[in-house]
Amino acid sequence: MTAYLKSTPTRDGWFGDYGGAMLPPPLEPHFKEIREAYDRISKSAEFIRELRYIRKHFQGRPTPVSHLKNLSDRCGGAQIYAKREDLNHTGAHKLNHCMAEGLLARFMGKTKLMAETGAGQHGVALATAAAYFGMECEIHMGEIDIAKEAPNVTRMKLLGANVVPVSFGGRSLKEAVDSCFQSYLSQADTALFAIGSVVGPHPFPMMVRNFQHVVGVEARDQFLEMTGELPDMVAACVGGGSNAMGIFSGFIDDDVALYGVEPMGTSSRLGEHAATITYGEDGDIHGFRTLVLKDAEGNPAPVHTVASGLDYPGVGPEHAHLHKTGRVTYTSADDRAALKAFFELSRHEGIIPALESAHAVAFAMREASNHPGKSILINLSGRGDKDIDYVTENFGLGDGL
Ligand SMILES: Cc1ncc(COP(=O)(O)O)c(C=O)c1O
């Protein structure tokens, strides 16, 4: 663990002005139990040994770093590299924290895992963890996302999960979190709410980051071994921010420029994007303080992006903090740029990226020509199999973009 990671957040979960745990009284003892269990169990030799075994023999880690030579040649300028979380079992980085949370739940004597999901990747990963550990699984998912991410819904059901459709409000990720919290209230004795990103009340932003840290540790070693130096720039898409914190945390104490890429959707008008750091204000959401996109009444605003997994009006508190301190630069890519990147990577590298990850690819394609001789490492957080029906039905093979 780096100096930064050891000192951040504070004991009670604050990343500067952001984070904390604003909980309804009935949930307080349950979050205290999770905090104590995490502190005690996750540092034990037994937990570490078992998690290492799972990562190697079940997840297939380490995932490689690939030099995207064709894409680099086409863009001109910087050399682009990708950390291949699409090759992690189940096809995205989400399994890194799900297996660890499942293992923690088993040590705690829990019998059920539950969570919200947007793109379905976290739901699939958690259902996988539940199957592996022989636990029940309950996944809350907005109706809009259920329609858009049908293959992942089928996968969750095949893995034995109960998928609960969420039909109120915007019927998307925020409402899925609301619905899951509601259900968790009545079963917190036996279930662990394995929140899907570096969001939620303390200890989740810290715990999920630390379980995703493996991505940054591997990527740093692999990049050094491949090129003899560290990358000049590291970039990742930011929804809640778990894949970004995973890779950033490996480079946070280095002289490496870090970029978070938010979804600009179809325009910068409120309701048509989910660029929370770019346009948000301080506020509370789902039990923690962070930047929030708010409507005229001060409530979380409706959001839009082509990538369901980035569709959230809040962001992990650590990102709000790293934005404030200036350690990470937050920028954006819109739907069109992400779709173009989706097609470009598929055709010229043989890698179909998740629409979420395509935002990071779009950033690298845009920035490469501005940084000749430099290197850009992106976190390719997931594969795009889940998106192919939606993309081809709506955008064909991308010729009109
Ligand atoms: C492939 C992929 N990347 C990124 C994300 C966004 O989540 P986070 O910002 O927590 O990495 C998701 C969410 O579902 C995802 O499926």
TrEMBL record:
Its EC number is 4.2.1.20. It catalyses: (1S,2R)-1-C-(indol-3-yl)glycerol 3-phosphate + L-serine = D-glyceraldehyde 3-phosphate + L-tryptophan + H2O. Keywords: Amino-acid biosynthesis, Aromatic amino acid biosynthesis, Lyase, Pyridoxal phosphate, Tryptophan biosynthesis. Residues 60-382 form the Tryptophan synthase beta chain-like PALP domain. SUPFAM superfamilies: Tryptophan synthase beta subunit-like PLP-dependent enzymes. It is an enzyme of class 4 (lyase). The keyword Amino-acid biosynthesis applies. The keyword Transmembrane does not apply. Pathway: Amino-acid biosynthesis; L-tryptophan biosynthesis; L-tryptophan from chorismate: step 5/5. The modification N6-(pyridoxal phosphate)lysine is found at K94. Gene3D superfamilies: 3.40.50.1100. GO terms for cellular component: cytoplasm. One of its GO terms (molecular function) is tryptophan synthase activity. Its cofactor is pyridoxal 5'-phosphate. The beta subunit is responsible for the synthesis of L-tryptophan from indole and L-serine. Belongs to the TrpB family. HAMAP family: Trp_synth_beta (MF_00133). Tetramer of two alpha and two beta chains. This is Tryptophan synthase beta chain. It comes from Rhodovulum marinum.
